[in-house]
Amino acid sequence: MEEAAAGMEEGEQSQEAEVSPALIAVHPLGKSVVVAVGSELRAYDLDGDKAISLSDNSSGPSHSEDIKAIGFGAKGKLFASAGNDKLVKVWATDSWNCMRTVCSEKRVSAVAISPDGLFVSFADKFGVVYILSLDEKGAEASADKKAVPLLGHYCSIITSLEFSPDGQFIASADRDFKIRITVFPKRPLSGAHEIQSFCLGHTDFVLCLAFICSSDGCQAFLLSGGGDSTVRLWDFMSGSLLDTCEVGLKVVSIGGHFVPTSLGMSSTADHLWMVMGASNLPSHGSSLPLACVKVISPLQKIKLDEEHSNLTVLDDEEVPGGQKLLEKLQGRLNVAEDHEALEVAAEALKTAMRNLLVKRQYSVANRELRKKIRNDRKIKQQHQ
Amino acid sequence: MCIPSHEKYGTERYGEPRPKPRFLVGNLEVANPGQFLFSLRLLLAVSLVPAPSPAVRRHSFPRLRAAPSVDTAASSRRSWWPQKEQQRYIQRSKVGPLLKSDRQMASNGHKSHLPRKRFYRARAHSNPLSDSHFPIPISPSDVDYSQHFPAFFPVDRDGTDGNLSIRKIHFADIGCGFGGLLVNLSTMFPDTLMIGMELRDKVTEYVKERILALRAANPGLYENISVVRTNSMKYIPNYFEKGQLSKMFFLFPDPHFKEKNHRRRVISLHLLDEYAYALQVGGLIYTITDVEELGDWMKSCLENHPLFEAVSESELKADPVVKLLTSATEEGQKVARNGGQTYQAIYRRVVQEEE
C-alpha cells in the first residue's frame, strides 16, 4: 500500500527482466568448478581437465529462468541449483546427473544441502524454508512428493541458507537484518521449531553466511556479510556478536572494471575463484549472458602483516584449466577486455540488488507527502 | 427551453400533445416530483442525524464546556476532513473525562483527562505483510526502556546509571489494541514490566496517551506498562531476548477468514517458533477469540507445536489472569455485550521431549 507513491519509476523498472548476478561454486576438494549465469549451468572438471556436460534423468524440466542459488554439499558429493523458475535440482557430482527435480510454490532464493547428504533445504522469497528428503530408500515413493516446510521467516526474502558443519544447526539470513540459527531436528520433516539464537547486529540486509571452524576444529563460528558493508563474526550458540569488520576500508583492488558477483573456494583454499556476470542485461547486444571468470592465487602465502604483495590475479593463460575452462565457463574468451559490457553489468546489478533487498526509508514528512500524492492520484483516476 | 412538445413527438401519432403534468407542493409548482422527494428525504435525514437515540447518548462521552486551544499538529493530521466537520471537532477537546471503568480505578478522585477514542480512530486492520517504515531496534539491547518505564529506570543527575540490575519486560500483549488488558494487569502485577505491541499508529498513540493520563491521575501507579508500535509478527526477536517473557497475550486477533490470508494470522506454526523463543520454559501463552474458526485454528497450531502443552483446567481456574481475557479488553467487553461466545486456548512453553 505504501509503496504506491514511489511507484512510477519502479513500475517501469519491473517491466524489464530482472537482472541476476552470475554465481560460482567450487568443489570442496577442488575437483570441479561451476558457474551459473542466467538459466545456464556451466561446469568444468578440473581433475580431468575437461568440460562437463550435464545430464538429466529426473524427468523434470530443466532450468528456464535465472538461477539464483547454487552450492555443493555433503563433502562435494551433491550439488544443488535453484532459481526463479521455482525448480530445485539436485545433481550427483560423480556423474553430473540430475537426481531430483522439485517444484517450489514460490521463487527460490537460497539452497543448502545437509552435511550428511540426506536432506536438501531451500528457501523462497516469502521466507519459508522447505526441506526435502533425499533418502535412497524412499526415493522411489517420494519422487513426486513435495518438499515440507521446515521453518519460516515472516514474509521476508531469505538471502542465504547454511548448515553448520556438524549438521546440528541450520542458519538462515533474511533481508530484515536477521540471522536465525535453528536447531536441526532429528526428524526434520515435521519442522524445526527450536530456535537456538538470533544473530542481530547488521544494520541492513544480510546477504551471505558461512560457518568456519577454528584451526583445531573444535569450535565453530558463523561469518556473515551484509548490505551495511560489514562482515561480522558471531558466536552462533548465543547469538552474540564477536567482531565486526568494515569492508569498505580493506578492499583489495583487482583492477579494471571487474567487480566480482560471486566467490568460490575449495577447502584446500589455494585459489580464490571469482565471477562477474549478469543475465538479462538491458543494453547488452548479444543474447549470450555475460560472465567473466578470474582467479586469485596463491592464497596460502597471505600473511596478515604483509601488504598482500603476493596476491596476484592470474592471467587467463595461468588459470587452472586454461583457455578451455574459460571458454566453457565464460561462453567465449576475452570477456575481460569488454570494459563497456562489464561496466553496464556492474551498474545493472547494483540497481537490481538495491531494488530487491534494500528497505526504503522515508522521513515522516516524506511519508505524509507520499500519502497525499497517492490520494490525489486516486481521485484523479476516479474522475477520468 | 421552449421546444413545442408536438414538434418533438409528432401530433399524428399521439393526437393532441399531452399537457405537462403539474405537481403542487403548497404554493410551489414542482417540475420533477422525484427530485423533490429525494431532496426532502435528504433534508429529513440531515435533521435526524444530530439527535441520537437515548441509548447512543448514554454511551457517548459528555461534552466539555470549555473549548481548549487548537493544537495545530492535530488539525493538520485531520486535514482530510471536510472543512466544516474539522471546525466542529476542533472546538472540542481531544482529552475527555475518565472512562467509567477507569474512573473506578482513579480511587483518589483526582480529576484527570484520558484521551478520547474518537480522535484516534483507525482502520480496523493493518497489513502485517507490508514493509515497515517505522524505526525498529537492531537488537533487544538497543531499546531504551528508561523512556518507557522512567520509574523503574532511575538515571542519576550525572547521567550515569545507578548500579541497579537491569529490569526486563516479562509480559507482552501482542496486538494490544486500546490497551484494556495492560491497564488491568498493571495493578494486578505492579512489579512486573509489561509492554503492549500494536501495529496501528493511531491506536498506539492512544494507548500512550492513556497510560500517561493514568500515571498523572494515580501517582505511583501504572508505571510498569508501556506500548510500542511495531509489527510483532516480524520483529519479536528485535525486542526480546531468548526466554525473557513469562506471559504472552494474543487477545481477539484479526480472524483473516480467506485461506489466502491465513498467513496473516498472528498465530501460525512458524510464528509459534519465535514466540517459543521469546518465552521462558514454563511461560504461558494466552489466546482468545470470538471467531470459532480462528479459535480452532489457534488451538490446533498450539496443539501441534512440540514446544507447547495445554494448561490444565484446574490451573486455569486458579489463574486470575484468565478472567481478564474476557473482561478487560475493549473487544472482550464488546463480545460480552453482544452475548457472543469466546474460544480460548492457553498453553505452556515446555522443553521438547527427547526421543
UniProtKB/TrEMBL annotation, chain A:
Belongs to the WD repeat TRM82 family. This is tRNA (guanine-N(7)-)-methyltransferase non-catalytic subunit. Keywords: Nucleus, Repeat, tRNA processing, WD repeat. Pathway: tRNA modification; N(7)-methylguanine-tRNA biosynthesis. Required for the formation of N(7)-methylguanine at position 46 (m7G46) in tRNA. In the complex, it is required to stabilize and induce conformational changes of the catalytic subunit. Coiled coil: none annotated. Its main location: nucleus. WD repeats lie at residues 60-101, 199-244. It is found in: Nucleus. Forms a heterodimer with the catalytic subunit. PANTHER family: TRNA (GUANINE-N(7)-)-METHYLTRANSFERASE NON-CATALYTIC SUBUNIT WDR4 (PTHR16288:SF0), WD40 REPEAT PROTEIN 4 (PTHR16288). One of its GO terms (biological process) is tRNA (guanine-N7)-methylation. GO terms for cellular component: cytosol; nucleus; tRNA methyltransferase complex. It comes from the Eukaryota. InterPro entries: Trm82 (IPR028884), WD40/YVTN_repeat-like_dom_sf (IPR015943), WD40_repeat_CS (IPR019775), WD40_repeat_dom_sf (IPR036322), WD40_rpt (IPR001680). SUPFAM superfamilies: WD40 repeat-like.
Automatic annotation (TrEMBL), chain B:
The active site is at D254. Its main location: nucleus. Keywords: Methyltransferase, Nucleus, RNA-binding, S-adenosyl-L-methionine, Transferase, tRNA processing, tRNA-binding. It holds the Pfam family Methyltransf_4. GO terms for cellular component: nucleus; tRNA methyltransferase complex. Pathway: tRNA modification; N(7)-methylguanine-tRNA biosynthesis. PROSITE patterns: SAM_MT_TRMB. It is found in: Nucleus. The keyword RNA-binding applies. InterPro entries: SAM-dependent_MTases_sf (IPR029063), Trm8_euk (IPR025763), tRNA_(Gua-N-7)_MeTrfase_Trmb (IPR003358). It catalyses: guanosine(46) in tRNA + S-adenosyl-L-methionine = N(7)-methylguanosine(46) in tRNA + S-adenosyl-L-homocysteine. It is an enzyme of class 2 (transferase). One of its GO terms (molecular function) is tRNA binding. Belongs to the class I-like SAM-binding methyltransferase superfamily. TrmB family. Catalyzes the formation of N(7)-methylguanine at position 46 (m7G46) in tRNA. This is tRNA (guanine-N(7)-)-methyltransferase. It comes from Colocasia esculenta (Wild taro).
